[in-house]
Amino acid sequence: MAPRARALPATAQLLSTPVGRFGTKAARRAPAAAPAAAPATEPVATPIVKWVGGKTRLLSELLARMPARFERYYEPFAGGAALFFRMAPQRAVLGDDNADLVNLYRTVGLKVDDVIRRLAVHRRLHNEGHYYEMRARWNDANVSWTHVDRAAAFVYLNKTCFNGLWRVNRAGHFNVPMGRYEDPPICAVDSLRAAATVLQRAELRHGHYREAVADARAGDFLYFDPPYDPVTVTANFTGYTAGAFGSDDQRELAELARHLVARGCKVMLSNSDTPFVRSLYKGFRVDRVRCGRAINSNAAKRGDVDEVIIMGER
């Protein structure tokens, strides 16, 4: 799912250039089966950052409800992109409104060895002083970054911050204290290389989710994992972006889902099991599932909760 952090210096060209050969709108759309898993000769990719609302614990439920065949896969609220990495689709569009997250995925796809080298340095230097120095640099608008350095810093801070809770304030500044880990997985070489293989087949798009799926066509499969409708007043966590996703946004997303189904697309969404969400998706198949939540600053609030998986197909 998806943070609206400040734009990176000089990222416009990189953020609009496809990683792989399927990245242009003019690319030939040959029929393709929907692989539920990576080919036997390809290592299974897993998320390379920890993300609030990540779907690793819900993968079996999501995979069981996927269409058997589809043309191209879209995931416009990428976040940790657990489903994308597990599916390892041959043709995909991965989007998010967090410029740093898109830069990370694009840079890992293009220059994974360079990212690994930078992360090896962070692993060697890691201590409390290095963490807070990197956090200060991350938030300093006057610091100039290369795409590789910014991507590696993102992974380093994500892997070493408290409980993996990536959170920004209204100014877009990352403000999470350092976590106390014995051996955080700062430079997971095999995981990064497996992710790079899958990311090379995807087009990365930075921006609004509606723009990310604008060219979806009949036969395409789209998975939406937006910021959830809050179950309680205090449950509305959207702090991975400097912005909110309110009830009007939920209505807009439901309207888009209906348009996509009418267009012939296959749609699946995740959200909280609330009366409001169910009212938005009348006529869709809505399945209640139990899902574990591993990321919360309050340990007492981690555990199983009810969610819904929503499916629509013409």
Task: Give a structural overview.
By secondary structure, the protein is of the alpha/beta class. It has two domains: 13-22 and 30-109 and 191-313, Rossmann fold (3-Layer(aba) Sandwich), CATH 3.40.50; 114-190, Adenine-specific Methyltransferase, Domain 2 (Adenine-specific Methyltransferase, domain 2), CATH 1.10.1020. The chain has helices at 12-15, 59-64, 82-87, 99-125, 128-139, 147-160, 189-199, 209-212, 247-263, 275-280; strands at residues 73-75, 92-96, 202-206, 221-224, 266-272, 285-293, 303-313. Mean pLDDT is 86; it is low at 2-32 and 295-301.
State the distance separating the first and last CA atoms: 25 Å
The coarse silhouette is: globular
Strand content: 5-15%
Low-confidence stretches: 2-32, 295-301
CATH architecture of the largest domain: 3-Layer(aba) Sandwich
Number of strands: 7
| Domains (count) | 2
Gyration radius over CA: 19 Å
List keywords for this structure.
2 domains; Rossmann fold; 314 residues; alpha/beta; disordered N terminus; 34% helix; single chain; Adenine-specific Methyltransferase, domain 2; seven-stranded mixed β-sheet
Compact description:
The chain is of the alpha/beta class.
List the helices and strands and how they pair.
Blueprint: H1 12-15, H2 59-64, E1 73-75, H3 82-87, E2 92-96, H4 99-125, H5 128-139, H6 147-160, H7 189-199, E3 202-206, H8 209-212, E4 221-224, H9 247-263, E5 266-272, H10 275-280, E6 285-293, E7 303-313
Parallel strand pairs: 1-2, 1-4, 2-3, 4-5
Antiparallel strand pairs: 5-7, 6-7
Helix pairs in contact: 4-6, 4-7, 5-6
